[in-house]
């Protein structure tokens, strides 16, 4: 199951991503965590030392390897160089499984709190002013588009803040998107932005209240987001303690916060996989990108990369080379 945490800057996306990852791992579930934010903080939130976190291989710097691996023997993609971030898988492509020891997971993921952690990598000095962050998150799009995940397996992506997410098709890649909102007017304003996109693209969106103090805070969120409000987490002394360098375990959270993490998982587990929709939207965004810039940039008709007879799903794994 593919899960995103989005929301206003500072709302608690990274904190809640890390708590949810820890919750899943503690329950014995296989988890891949992905730091897809410009400010890379997920590794530290998962307990890595700063320098260990900074040394995670950047997915954005391994795009050529990622592309050439995923392309496999797909006859519609003549070379890795003609693959763009939206190029969808087709027959012959290499598909990914969460627990596999394929080159992408083994080379790019590190262990953090019992999860496999991957990271897009930070903006470097060279990127400033010339590249947009989507050239980095493109690696995550490719990963998600080739990943056949089943129920009980989780990919948790800590996304960039605010409406930045809509600049690429990545926001349609998730089984469930959690919008983290503080009980403030700015906190719920981001929800209003999301609602229209979510409706247009059939994105499943639930709001998670964060840093909620009391019943009035809950009522404020309920008033502004209605039934989209799934659950809330409080202003946590244990999270603050972790920020101050104290040891942290999921058991240090209050019972109410732990039960909210359980509610997040239940909401994810409640979602049925819709592989035809997932595949259709991948193709839609690819065609859109091909026409807007990628055909011209690559000098090929990239719409020809679409394999009309292919749907990503468990069945697509049959006959796959290991
Ligand atoms: N439930 C919580 N209890 C206590 N502190 C929290 C809680 N949630 C978040 N924080 C604190 O609030 C600050 C911002 O949280 P976090 O970094 O998770 O937000 P973010 O949305 O990922 O921010 P950014 O947009 O910068 O990536 C951090 O100092 C974090 O420790
Ligand atoms: Mg963050």
Features:
alpha/beta, binds adenosine-5'-triphosphate, single chain, 38% helix, 8 strands, Rossmann fold, 322 residues
Structure description:
The protein has helices spanning 13-26, 42-45, 50-54, 63-71, 103-108, 134-145, 185-200, 215-225, 237-243, 255-269, 275-298, and strands spanning 2-7, 31-35, 110-112, 115-119, 154-158, 176-181, 205-212, 229-234. An 8-stranded mixed beta sheet has the order 3-4-2-5-1-6-7-8, sandwiched between helices. The model has no long low-confidence stretch (mean pLDDT 92). The radius of gyration is 19 Å and the shape is globular. The protein is an alpha/beta fold and 322 residues long. Adenosine-5'-triphosphate (ATP) is lined by residues 7, 9-15, 37, 39, 41, 161, 210-211, 233, 235-236, 239-240, 243. Magnesium ion binds at residues 13-14, 37, 39, 41, 158.
């Amino acid at each position: 199951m593919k899960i995103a945490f989005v929301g206003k800057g500072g709302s608690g996306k990274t904190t809640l991503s890390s708590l949810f990852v820890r919750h899943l791992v503690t329950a014995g579930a296989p988890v891949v965590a992905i730091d897809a934010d410009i400010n890379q903080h997920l590794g530290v939130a998962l307990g890595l030392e700063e320098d260990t976190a900074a040394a995670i291989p950047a997915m954005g710097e391994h795009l050529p390897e990622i592309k050439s691996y995923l392309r496999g023997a797909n006859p519609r993609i003549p070379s890795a160089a003609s693959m763009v971030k939206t190029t969808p898988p087709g027959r012959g492509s290499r598909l990914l499984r969460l627990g596999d020891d394929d080159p992408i997971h083994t080379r790019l993921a590190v262990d953090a709190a019992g999860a496999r952690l991957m990271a897009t990598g930070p903006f470097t000095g060279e990127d400033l002013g010339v590249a947009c962050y989507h050239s980095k998150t493109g690696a995550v799009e490719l990963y998600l588009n080739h990943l056949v995940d089943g129920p009980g397996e989780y990919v948790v992506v800590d996304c960039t803040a605010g409406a930045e997410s809509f600049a690429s098709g990545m926001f349609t890649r998730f089984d469930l998107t959690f919008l983290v909102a503080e009980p403030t007017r700015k906190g719920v304003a981001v929800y209003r932005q999301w609602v229209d996109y979510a409706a247009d693209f059939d994105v499943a969106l639930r709001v998670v209240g964060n840093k909620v103090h009391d019943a009035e805070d809950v009522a404020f969120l309920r008033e502004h987001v209605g039934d989209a409000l799934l659950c809330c987490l409080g202003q946590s002394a244990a999270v603050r303690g972790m920020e101050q360098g104290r040891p942290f375990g999921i058991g240090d959270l209050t019972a109410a916060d732990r039960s909210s993490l359980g509610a997040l998982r239940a909401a994810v587990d409640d979602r049925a996989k819709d592989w035809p929709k997932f595949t259709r939207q991948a193709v839609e965004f690819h065609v859109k990108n091909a026409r807007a810039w990628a055909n011209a940039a690559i000098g090929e008709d990239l719409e020809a990369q679409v394999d009309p007879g292919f749907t990503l799903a468990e069945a697509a794994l049959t006959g796959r080379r290991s």
